[in-house]
Queue: 4 jobs
Job 1
Amino acid sequence: MAAAVRAGGAHRGVISVTRHSTALKPQYDAVIIGAGHNGLIASAYLQKGGLKTAVLERRHVLGGAAVSEEIVPGFHFSRASYLLSLLRPHIYQDLELKKHGLKVYVRDPFSFTPMLEDGVRGRPPRSLTLGADLAKTQQEIGKFSEKDAKVYSDFLSYLERLACAIHPLLDAPPVDIPGLTQGSLRKKISALRSLKPLVKSGLKLGKNIPDFYELVTAPVMKVLNRWFESEPLRATLATDSVIGANTSPNNPGSGYVLLHHVMGELEKEKGAWGYVEGGMGGVSQSIACSARSLGADIFTNRDVEQVLIGQDGSVKGVVLTDGTEVHSKAVLSNATPYITFKQLTPPDALPEAFITAVDQIDYTSPVTKINVAVDKLPNFLAAPNSADGKPGPHHQCSIHLNCESVEVLEEAYREGLQGRPSSRPMIEMTIPSVLDPTLAPPGCHVVSLFIQFTPYLLEGRRAWTDEDRERFADTVGKDILTPADLERVFGLTGGNIFHGSMSLDQLYLARPLPSVADYRSPVKGLYLCGSGSHPGGGVMGAAGWNSALKVLADFKRL
């Protein structure tokens, strides 16, 4: 990467944090722990439903992992999450997020994979660029395989058929198994409505049900090898099957992660991903602005120490680390299930068997996020910068480094399993300032590096030291967030960006556990509303929306 790098220091500024003078009240209908996007969305829908709601965020900035921070003076970074796509369309419309300041730059092209190879006859190394223009994309693929270029459009149609069928499941809680199997006949009949999204998905899939079953259960390479023969295309597509997940393209279940990353849409364009103006904190601020307009009280620097449980075993509110008590009939936790049940809930309020099950939830993370401020555009041998220094189309893409072949990805995964940071890590590089000029001074840029595979503990036993971080980052950048740092800064247990692995045993009816898949905990009045519950991390806002519906339904019964 031909660019000067300025190291991030101790400075930690924040952009777009609106100051509000609302005082924290001693009593609310509902209290939400954590102002991540799901918590903020839940607060908006609870307010729309008539419940006075407070959101309490322990950090100085709203958004959870969707935040913008000024790590280097003048440079504003999406410090953790960095791309937007899976924000549910009905939430975007219901909360009028565009009106409340959300602006998104849709990328086209969207994927660039430069080859690490010698050029032929004086030409630069090859590269693969994918975008919305099918003819241009097929021309790019044709550099490696004419056969692959011809079938690429059929492959996209295949993925779209499967992804569209999942949408009804994202926008509704899982099937109400307890309601269908327990209680009165009236309750069982009422619970039949929870089957509607599942039936709708099945009808949408129709004859494609076997294809869907294969994709979500098989190694993604089983599918990709059947469609394509060129290694750069297979490897580029395979990156979406492992991004954020501690898995290999040759492991069963990796196909679902690929599907998970093509399910979104932006500005009604299916599968599109984009940059939020001002960084990812922009989407959190727009949600918070909408929620406040509906009457929600949202606070930063309010660290919840414990959930208050009454003598009758039901929730009574929360107590903060400074001793302040805030009483409520419902508490929604946007923290991970581990933090919710192991740190925030009194241990004697939960069954021992349930605590044992919580301990078994997998939070393994292979991710290190590195943020870099640069004083000129990165330059690639496969696509040299123009003489005027202006960005090329490839600079707006997700830039896949060390992704020339699936074997490179496999080797990076194997090294991570052995407790070593990958010597040739899989890197997804983005330069959002190419489209958003608000992020960096003129002529300069912010660069995000999403890197795999790095273990939580080195060699399975040793914590990362500053020297370890610097040694690893010397090849890529600064402001290093290893899995342990992601846990410490953002409360992501194990550093897992999804609030728990997106493996088949931790999805839908089993997310995070079968006994709490409906967002209700064993403690009456305590709910999960974060990405650790259905439909999981990345599907922006669905858990907040679904959990709010559960709370509102329970309040109607009181």
Note: The mean pLDDT is 89.
Job 2
Amino acid sequence: MLSDALASTLTASLPPPPPPANTDYPHPFPPSKLAYLIDSSKSIKHLLQIHASLLRHNLLDTNRILTFKLQRSYSSLRRLDYSLSLFNHAQTPPNVFSYTAIIHAHTTLNLHPQALSLYARMLADDVVPNAFTFSALLRDCPLKPGKSLHSQAVKLGCASDNYVITGLIDVYSKAGEVASARQLFDKLPERNLVSLTAMINCCAKNGDVDGARLLFDGMEEGERDIVCWNVMIDGYVQQGRPNEALDLFREMLELRVKPFEPTLLAVLSACGQLGALESGRWVHSYILMNNGIEFGVQLGTALVDMYSKCGSLDEARTVFDMIEDKDVVAWNAMVFGYAMHGFSKDSFRLFATMCRRGVYPTDITFIGLLTACVHSGLVTEGRRYFCLMKDEYQIEPKIEHYGCMVNLLGSAGHLDEAYELIKSMKIDPDPVLWGTLLGACRLHGNTVLGERIAELLLSKNVADSGTYVILSGIYAAAGNWDGAAKVRAMMKGSGVQKEPGCSSIEVNNMVHEFLAGDMRHPKCKEIYAMLEEMNGWLETHGHTPHIDIVLHDIGESEKKRLLEVHSEKLAIAFGLISTQAGATIRIFNNLKMCLDCHTATKLISKIKGRKIVVRDRNRFHHFVDGSCSCGEYW
């Protein structure tokens, strides 16, 4: 038997009961006033009062418009159960408008199977759908039912409607069928903002960001709204072109277009990719100035991620502590922040706090923890977290978790264990995983295993530039110059290009990029003059260039010169001449920092009394007074 409190709760959640038969009397308000009251209702309680009143006066069965409006208002307040109850118990058969409204309510809440079921029922009732019906059904619709709806829209003469075409463009875009989307777009009788934005989004999300920009630039200046700007900015970010994203954002601000939260999320991601700390700080201040932007968990998490990637962990933690009602994504961002900087103990402590507060970890949490283990060489802890994830939290390891474990074991010299782990995987190892182990073979001079892995990658035609470079390095380190030359020749013959090293530094809100031996910068003369000074300081302090890492059979002087003009050193030289004495220099590099640059940077930090923060492909290095936070483990 139900308790009185539970019975009361269940009764309160149900729609009003049907009216008694003898309560048919005129309502004191005319239908127009009732329609206004329904449309202006902002709470379920208010709607239920109106609903009860309509039932008492028997108006739901006699006034179809009021029933429709009530159904729609329940849906807008996310009470689909009330809306569906009204729809199912209507005395008069539903028409195209009521069917479209209830379908729209379901697709808005991402309930596509139910929406399609209602559509099938609609057809069975011989109710002919219109363009609005198809537009509602196509919202975030999967490809297979989307194609069927496309066919039916053509059959019923709705396929030429702008909103239907725009919905179809979105369906094909999300499935990666750009050609089909473009064909529909080109057939549009009249292009409007919605269809143009959909096509720009289609191009950008599927890799054709230049094609998206052509469409964007072809629009009239006043024609673009904030959604259109955001799609273009986010497109650049998603395709790894953060500089262009920030340039477009600045252009948007100059035109006095006010950003909204999704725009700032994309811009913060761009700042993180570039290491553009000053630009990220500006976005943070813009949020704090209360420009109609609410500081919530999503923006807070994006700021934590940005500050972590830009090398300012203290600011990341300050923002993290400000976030109220942190979700697991926010916790993961901070765990990752500590991990990428090599502060493993902080990662572990934060994880323990997170668990104590009842936040359940995800697979991403454990990638962060394992990354922390990798960057500190904590093999025992890594094994423990890997088992904890599987055994206690029932999280099946993904390729990223195996990648961390292989990296951890390989770097520590446990090559056989790493190899056996790969062979025992339930999922197929990818080339990146094999490449990680290949890099460990080079680190520990295991030519036999290195050759075996390289042959495997070459036989499967999945070898990238890293495969050739690492194998060449294994031979060169062993003094096998013929083998190294042969590998380089194979690389050249295969058409694979080695990724060039590139370092960037932000000064006065502008990001400056350098390649090895770069001569393009406007301050090239001053940079190379500072480089000569740096070489003098290093020589005075006993630095011996690590010419053994130069994998070319050339003379020692040529090897020394190649090391002197590495992109990191050019960026540091520019930082020294462009910033105030004592200011922190932050460098961002796309490749793993080489041993010579690492040793030189430690000395420069001591000689000049500067903190130098370097983010390479793998992790952060904090150089202070001649030492590095990595503890020589990277």
Note: The two ends are 66 Å apart (CA to CA).
Job 3
Amino acid sequence: MRAELTPRNIVNVSCAADYLEMTDEYGEDNLLSKSESFLHKNVLRNWKDCILALQSCDPFTPRAEKLQIVSKCLNALSMMVCTDPSLFGWPMMMYGRLQSPGGSILWNGINTGARIRSTESDWWFEDISYLSVGLFEKLIHTMETRGIRPESLVGAIMYYARKYLPGLGRWQSGQSGKTRTVASFSLTPAAVDQKVLLEAIEKLLPEKKGKSFCRFLLGLLRVALILGVKQACKDSLERRIGMQLEMATLDALLIPTYSDSDTLYDTDCMERIVHHFMTSESRVTSFSPSLDLETSPSSEPLRKVAKLMDNYIAEVASDVNLKPMKIRSLADALPESSRPLHDGLYRALDIYFKAHPWLSEREKEELCNVIDYQKLSIDACAHASQNERLPLRIVLQVLFFEQMQLRTALAGCLHVLDTESAPAGHMMVPADVAGQIVQRDGWATVVRENQVLKVDMENMRSRVGELEEEFGKIKQEMKRVTKSHSSLSSPRMVARKIGCKLLPRSSDAEPDTIDSTGPTPRASIEQPRSSRHSRHRKSFSLF
């Protein structure tokens, strides 16, 4: 009978013919030989047919592997991916148009010479994503042995994972774009167990570093914590992230807690990642023990991670359920030399104190011990010296170290000025001293401005003191005059008390003449009153 063979049923027919032993021993050109001939002449030479044949292998995988159908299809796909398409004699369906191996559009099999857009390196990602997890894993291993670039393999793995793991796409910025397909036919997505897929993806991923790859790993870790995969898989993902932690971003590191913990974020996971980072850094620095950690090139990732860690602590510090010991352990996860400045750590602790006002002075002091106050900038010292949330002892320490910094900077500034004023012929400045002078230039400017402000404030303070002293003297003198005026009735006693001497008038020098004229009582009363007012005017005019 005549059997109609297609890429969709070739695996079924081949497995059935093998099971029924329909070989040429029982009949010439039997079904098994026909199916093998169709597989080699038609299926293995076409990308679309290989994908369809592999997709139909799932129900018969053991027997299809025995007949080497799976391995043949995988090798054919790998060869098509890693080889220049112009070397093949088969047309490709790309974006719904038929084109020649060289990329020219075909019309009725004739090369028209018209070119279309060059194919991208990820043109095959979408098609192989329809394979099951097992076949996809075998295909990646086959492509790896064929010498396909690791970047392309990682891209295919990330594409496959993003397709079947919901929520993973948002952690791959710039990766989602227009779906590209070569086969241009409808395929049924594979039925995938997400836990099995994630564990398989983790094993397929190479030891690679990169910003997008690190973000992808953090997204995988989030999904792994949600799905509850094996602990070995989670440990491996944390180790991979720790090896490239300097390339991570803060939003990707803020992993929520998916367990019964009271905290908002999984700080234990972050602490383990930092531990893996320090382990990898210790292996790197162990080969060069003579290098200084502050100046060696390997310290740059450490400084980046320290800054990232300070921002992470500041972000999680607002969680009211976060314990002080967890903040302390996160801050102590990195060595002291990793932070050239402790401004970020101070900011994180300030946020924590603001969100936890019920902390005791002892707990605050224990947390503040992680800060090296000699590494605070001038702005941070100024803020800390006026921070009411800090314990009083810590504020005093900040003020002390601030004065030490100003004195050191002032000494360096004076040294620079003395060096500049020295004669050029006698100036012998070593290289290390010159480097220190260059580093102090910024401090010198700040110190000059600070000294000018201090002088202005001292002048203003002394002027205010003088004005207060003068005001006090005037106030006391006025009180004394008022008291004397109220207690003494004679104006001459007031003038004598103040220290003034009044000259007698002619009317006062001849009292007997006035009395001999026989004045009236009214006139005798008015005369002393007028004399008293005139004496008061004379006495007060002396002020």
Note: The first strand starts at residue 92 and ends at 94.
Job 4
Amino acid sequence: MDVLEAVLAKLEEGSYKSAVDIITDPANDIAVKMQSMELISFISKNLTDENAEKKPDLYSATETVLSRVAQQCSPPEVLYELMEKVRITTSDDVFTSVLKCMQVAILRLPAKRARCMEWVFQTLIEYLDKIKLPEVINKDMDEQEEELLECEESIRRLLQLYITLLLFLEPIIKHLNQPSSNIFFETSLTQKNAVICFLLRLVGKLFPFLHLQRTEQLRKSLKQTPKLPASKSYSIQVAEDMIGTLLLLVKDPLFMLPYGEKRIHFESKKKDDDYDEESSYDCFLCQDTYMAEGFAMLFYLLLGEELLPGTVPQIYNPRYVFEMGLRYVVVLMSGDWTVMYFKGIRLMQALVKLVKDNMLSARDLDAQIHSIFCEHYVRGLERSGSVRNREVGIAVLTDYIHSFDDEGRYMIVSYMLKKFDDDSVRSYAINVYKDLIMNDMRQKLQKEPLIKWFSGDVLKNMLTHHICLLKQGAKTDLLDNSYSIISALSALWVLLKTDRSNRSHIWNYFETLEKQFLLELRTGIDLSRAHYQNEMKAAAEMKGKHSSVEQLPEITVSTLNGEMPPVMTKAKKVELCQGMLLRLDMLDFHLARVNSAIDQMRRTMGVDKCSSTQQMDTE
């Protein structure tokens, strides 16, 4: 008897129980096994949305027949045909039905066939990849927009499929999670590791885009205790379930912390001519798609959202966790989507809290990851247009700087001033350095010397080469550099007003600062003011109502916050020139304040010098 023809005929007739009986009949066992692939291929054609709606009995009977075939036949053969069905379907209902049969076959799969399981999981990932994410993830979103993201149809669909996949994996994990005689962490491709990699890839595929905050993020102060929200969102619940499932297989997730660093070394090794993949095979390194994001999101959820269970071995030095965790902050802050950045900020916030009671030293900065982190973190804040990202991100960066000793703080600020040309970044670094100097002065007695990193030759080098410097002299574009110039003037003013006893030795080289910075700035302001006054006068005297932007070439794109300037009316041009003059007036105000402080200090120093001379004459 041709089993395939008989089963198809019974299904077509509506004799569904007879179709199942043909498969389960011991007399047909050999024939069923020989025709397993054809049975799966032809019978699965009945799994359609139309049959699910109009012929539910046929659809249900087809699922039953396929499950019986999966129970009797070769698991690899069954899985091969089911993977083909997943590749061609676009229906989530059909996908779910196929998963039921796959589950039966995987549970019967021999332990040595882990590669087959990996192929199955790759096919499932490819199905999920066919679901396009919403376009809104490509823009900067505020917190409310992120929370509403899960209402998007494609996101909702993916979350539902994630729940389905967790149910699919549940008995498989229970089957694999048996006590093992091997006490070491295996990195070879086993069925258990294939499931772990699959879960990590699921985490890395979707979760970077979702709003997963389990606690309220405080903006102004990071010292207060955050509050738990009143209820969990759909996204948070799925994320918690996914991490909980992963932790069933990985009892000590912190053991996997080094994989962020390992993956970087692995990628560089693969480029070597003598690289031997077999001798150094590690399944957690060889998976490419979504794995880096998966590891980063795993530790974001464990550390940043406090999902790390209390049963995890407490054997890890906080400094070790801090340093290893920086690699995952880099991953989250380097993505193409700015919606990921806040998760990097939250993870960094959690890492800094780990070492708040153990001050790091400048020697810790010898690790290359610190410079890599600093660059990617700051670049991420530059790219992000989110007020929340910048506000919280800057506060976390400041806490990171303050987690080091004085030398370490100086080294980070110095690196930022040397590495970044962005005006706002330089302004931030200057303000941090100013605050460090002021804190040191407040903590010391009036005549007690300051530490070397905030005084003497070190301070001189910072002021003359990095802070109080116009790179092109009076020709420097003052408006493009207005924030850092104002910060430099503010730092000078505070230093002059505070350091009356010259503990920082700033007066020893003040003439250099005055010549290369203050006088050049005075000239630059006067030239720029005259230029914009002429432009405003020319715009006001224009006869036509409209004019192209080419007539005002000095109004640059950077002046307009990166936006292309529009074609402006005469009134708009006058208004723009007035805005430029107002910003120059602000620079002029800060310069005048510094010059006033200089004059006052020089008069005071002159009086003190005369008093000292008179006292000596009297004696």
Note: Confidence is low (pLDDT under 50) at residues 544-553, 609-619.
